[in-house]
Each structure stands twice: as C-alpha cells, then as structure tokens.
C-alpha cells in the first residue's frame, strides 16, 4: 500500500487508559468515523474505583482467493453469502469469536438439552458471560434447535442430510453460541467490504486498575496470571470453555474442509457443513469459501491489538513469557511499538508478571543496544 498523503483519517490505537465515562464518550465520538464501535451497553455514567476501560480493536483480514470454481471470492475473516447485497460481506464464525474474546466475553457452559432419544434432533443451550463497563458481570443465553428427522421440514437432499446429521451436535452448538454473541454485541449480519478494509471493530472492556506499587496486589496479579489463584485463594468461577484473553491464548480451529465443501439447508437456514457457518433465512444458496486450516492464535497484549500471531512467533512467545504476542507487542524485536505500550501498568506476561509498559520500553532499548553492539562487533572483525 502507498503511504502518500491520504485525505482520510485512520484509526489510531488508544495510547492511554480510560478512567472516566466522559473520556470514554469523548473517545467513542473521536473514532466514530474511523472504526466500527461495538458496544452492547446503552451508556455508562461512572467507571467504578479501581477499574479502567481498555480499548481493543480487531481488524478483519480482507483478502481474495480461489472460489474452487475458477472464480475469485473473499477468504479469511469474511465471506460473501448469497444474500449479501452489493459491496457487503458477512463475518465468519471464527471472526465473531475473536470479537467476543476482544470484548472480554467468555462461554460459561454449552450443553445439549434435548432428551437425546433421537440423534437426528438436537437442542443446544449455551451461556455466555461478559463483564459490562459498569463492571457488573452479566450472563446471556443462546439456544439452537436442529431437527433433521425424516419428517422435519429441512429441504435437504439425501447426501446433504447425511452430512448435516454427522455434524448435527457441532452445528447446533456453534449456532447457539453465535446467536448469543451476535445479540449481545449487536453485530450486523453484513458489513461493507470497503469499510472493513479500513476500519477495525473496536470494543471496550472494564479491566482492574492494579496499583502495582502495592506488594500484595503485585503478588495477586502474578498469581492470577500464572494460574495459581485457585490454590492460593480457593476455587474461582467455573472455567470458561474458550478462556479469557488473559487466561489462555485463543485457539480456534476450522473444520477440516479442504475445498471439498458441503452446503446444506437446515431448517430453512443455509449451513456450511464443513465450517458450521449458518446464514439465516436461506432460500437459495452459494457456498462460503474454504477457510485456512491453521488454528488462529491472537495476540493477548493488553494494548488491545488483537493481531493474529504466526505459529512460530506464538511458540517462541509462549515459551518465553507464557502468552502469545505479535511482533509489535514484543519488546525484544525491532518492530516493537514503544508508544502504544508506554502507559500500560502491566504487560500481562505470566512469566514476567511485574513488567510494565515503561519496563518493556527499557527492555526494548536494551535489545536495540545489544543489536547495535552485535553489528559493531561483526564489523570490527
Ligand atoms: Zn501490544
């Protein structure tokens, strides 16, 4: 992409934390034209003591690829369903889950609730949980019934029906979860492709504002990040299915589709039987494109940059600091963004639990100095 003078303003990640409702409102106004702000909350009058608001952003990977029929189609985090008009597209299931993680949402439980007498009928309930900006934790239900019995009205051909039945529990579960997430975050069914190329989705999360100068708090933060909190303070709430960004790296895998996709209309809804994507109100259909097969690992940095981390970087960063980081959030790297992390009170690296943004800047400088010395030594030889 060219860097020539652009008339349009770009989204700039927030470099400092938000402490008051007025700051939050101001910030949301400021980025209204350059980001897609998702907020499930009508308003907030006050941010409680001991908390701050963290802004997180997620860019959709917008790319084109082979549609398997000699044409071009959208791939990555977006797809073009048959009902999407003009320059619009829909976020994939995996992308919606990434957005849910960025909002700090978790999945408390997810289970089958029918009587299990017929493997061709599944009803699924899921319970989602999200900490609102007023710091209250709120639960949201999601439900999906899938009826693939002979007498059911599902418009499936024999082969489609066989495929859908094989994955009936998975389809019911993913749609139960997605329905909850879409509802809570007020996600639209489709977005303009041009918008998604330039604008990230922005979400806000209430996070504890630790006083890292207090030795007791310092120890508790370290314990939480190392996952030893249960042993120290007794069991906490049930472990979320997908974890929170701080607790575990987000790892979501796609179905095993390898170009040989199956699409089926189930209960009047179009379902990709490989990826489990459901598009509402299908009356005719066109299959969504194949997805990448690598698990998606997302940077957990508290700066809110939820970039996808490559497998090698993920391996190295998890081994070294206990959580995956992208290059711009990795102090021991020339690409590290000092400004974006400057005011963070904690870098949320479990193996270096007390590292602050300031400390990371020092580490980064030391890294750069060491690089320079290496080059100089190499030159002197
Ligand atoms: Zn970062």
Instruction: Count every helix, treating DSSP H or I runs of 4 or more residues as helices.
Output: 10
Nearest-integer average pLDDT = 75
Structural class: alpha+beta
Determine Rg (CA atoms, Å).
Answer: 23 Å
Q: What is the distance, rounded to the nearest whole angstrom, between the alpha carbons of the first and last residues?
A: 39 Å
With strands numbered from the N-terminus, the spatial order across the biggest sheet is 1-11-2
DSSP strand count: 16
Bound molecules: zinc ion
Please give the largest β-sheet.
3 strands, mixed
Domain unit count: 2
Sketch the topology as an H/E string, one letter per element. Answer: HEEEEEEHEEEHHEHEHHEEEEEHHH
Query: Which residues form runs of ≥5 with pLDDT under 50?
Result: 1-6, 229-274, 279-294
What is the quaternary state of this protein? single chain
What does it look like?
The protein has helices at residues 21-31, 93-102, 158-166, 168-185, 193-198, 215-226, 229-233, 311-321, 338-341, 357-380; strands at 36-37, 51-58, 62-66, 72-76, 78-79, 88-91, 106-112, 121-131, 137-147, 191-192, 201-208, 251-252, 263-266, 269-272, 278-279, 296-297. It has 381 residues and is α+β, with helices and mostly antiparallel strands. It has two domains: 21-298, no CATH class; 299-376, no CATH class. A three-stranded mixed β-sheet has the order 1-11-2. Strand 13 (263-266) and strand 14 (269-272) form a beta hairpin. Helix 2 packs across helix 4. The radius of gyration is 23 Å and the shape is globular. Residues 1-6, 229-274 and 279-294 have low confidence and may be disordered. Zinc ion (ZN) binds at residues 301, 303, 305, 329, 340-341.
């Amino acid at each position: 992409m060219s860097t020539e003078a652009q008339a349009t303003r770009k989204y700039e990640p927030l470099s400092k934390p938000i402490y008051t409702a007025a700051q939050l409102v101001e910030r949301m106004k400021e980025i209204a034209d350059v980001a897609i702000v998702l907020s499930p909350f009508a308003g907030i009058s006050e941010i409680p003591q001991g908390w701050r608001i963290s802004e997180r952003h997620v860019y959709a990977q917008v790319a084109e690829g082979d549609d398997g029929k000699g044409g071009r189609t959208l791939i990555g985090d977006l797809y073009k369903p048959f009902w999407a008009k003009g320059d619009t597209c829909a976020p994939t299931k995996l992308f919606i889950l990434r957005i849910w993680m960025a909002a700090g949402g978790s999945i408390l439980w997810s289970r089958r609730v029918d009587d299990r007498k017929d493997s061709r009928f599944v009803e699924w309930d899921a319970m989602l949980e999200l900490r609102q900006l007023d710091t209250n934790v709120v639960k949201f239900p999601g439900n999906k019934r899938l009826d693939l019995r002979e007498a059911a009205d599902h418009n499936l051909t024999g082969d489609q029906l066989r495929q859908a039945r094989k994955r009936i529990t998975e389809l019911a579960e993913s749609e139960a979860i997605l329905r909850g997430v879409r509802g809570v975050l007020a996600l639209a069914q489709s977005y303009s492709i041009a918008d998604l190329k330039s604008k990230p989705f922005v979400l806000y999360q209430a996070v504890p504002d630790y006083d890292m100068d207090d030795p007791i708090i310092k120890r508790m933060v370290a314990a939480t990040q190392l996952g030893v909190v249960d042993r120290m303070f007794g069991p906490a709430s049930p472990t979320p299915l997908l974890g929170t960004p701080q607790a575990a790296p987000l790892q979501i895998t796609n179905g095993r589709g390898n170009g040989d996709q199956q699409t089926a209309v189930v209960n009047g809804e179009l379902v990709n039987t490989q990826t489990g994507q459901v598009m509402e109100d299908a009356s005719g259909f066109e299959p969504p494109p194949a997805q990448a097969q690598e698990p998606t690992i997302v940077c957990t940095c508290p700066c809110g940059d939820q970039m996808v981390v490559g497998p090698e970087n993920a391996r190295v960063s998890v081994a070294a600091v206990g959580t995956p980081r992208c290059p711009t959030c990795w102090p021991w790297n020339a690409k590290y963004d000092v400004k974006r992390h400057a005011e963070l009170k904690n870098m949320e690296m479990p193996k270096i639990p007390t590292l602050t943004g300031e400390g990371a800047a020092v580490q980064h400088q030391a890294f750069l100095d060491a690089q320079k010395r290496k080059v100089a030594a190499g030159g002197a030889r």
